[in-house]
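Case 400 in the screening queue. Each case pairs one protein sequence with one candidate compound; here the compound is zinc ion. For every case the pipeline is the same: read the inputs, emit a complex structure as tokens, and attach any notable structural observations.

Predict complex for case 400.
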Amino acid sequence: MIDPYMIFIDFDGTITENDVGYEMFKKFTSAATEPIVQAYRRGKVNSLDCLTRECEIWNESSIDHTKVFAYLDDQTLRPGIEKFLIELGKLQIKPMILSEGFDFYIDRILSSHKLGNLERVTNIARFEKGRISPEFPHYKFGCLECSSCKGYHIRRLRPPNSCAIYIGDGHSDLHASLTADIVFARSHLAELLEGAKRRFFAYGTFHDISAELKNIRQIGLFAQSEKINFCRFSERYKEKIHKLWESGEVMSYVGYPFGLGWSRARFNDHWKKLLRDEQAIYLALEDNSGNFLGEGKIAFPDEDGFCQPDMKLLPEFWGQGLGFEAWHIILERIGARWPEAGIVVTPNIENSRAIKLYRSLGFKFIGDEYLWEPPESDFGAVPVCYRRMVKKGVASGKNI
Ligand SMILES: [Zn+2]
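Case 400 output:
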């Protein structure tokens, strides 16, 4: 059984009200760290260099550690966090802190608020006699920009079948936000995501997030685009999916010009298998008002490293740009899970509309045309001539 949701939470400025690490360095170095932080925020230096330099600047002065501890013990948490964590416990959703901050101050603050048992992945620093000696054990495994890439951590910690929710506020949350399926953002992160035209839920407190999480779970939300909610298959979509598959218009290019024509028992049997399938994510597509639009499928990579996803829309929603929008999210979510996977689609060579759409998404024809013959038992089904189109993953060198 796969957990439907995993929640990853930033620490500084998200769990805490203040951006504690940044403020701490600024306060105790009389703002000598400010130029390097501003250079980081403008993208001039990476976070590893920024944090390393901040520690060097810190160690140039002699800092009274008791004053640092007093400052840390004064920090307050964002309203609603305790209640939010209790709710997650009841839902058996395990939260995980991902931070580019240092363990010595994060651990101290969490313990002082009786949250010392929260799991976290952070950078490490020895804090002795007022001096900070940093270590970046995760740097080399990540993107080599972040000191501890949160996108990398989400990819390694989240089973591909589960939906990753990320909650953050700053520049260091960008890679996590691009990897996670659903994002809660405020402050700088909200500005960055607006600039990148990425959907997110705005929040001020964890009370806001609790309320939204209730809605998310209710519809089984997995991802979101501007006009489409991608929701996991559940009983509430069963009849709608059945109707979609029985539409001759929808199924004609895959060889079923009168719809699949399946008996109710065959459909029910197949439906049960889909709900148990852990090697693919089946999604019902809805508009923002809850109208059913169609379905999407994120298939896991095969043994050659290629995913074969799918998407079908009800005919009344064709020609409105929704197909492009839906495919864009499906490809984006595949890339977030398996950056190196190639992606294959197999359009009917007569389906010029689909071929044009796939071309606009970066797919290219590869190999010969093939003929698919329907089983004799599928009355009314017709052969289909199709050809593969492929979109290579970021680092894929394989061919099919
Ligand atoms: Zn990164």
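Case 400 observations:
- The radius of gyration is 25 Å.
- Residues 322-337 form the longest helix (16 residues).
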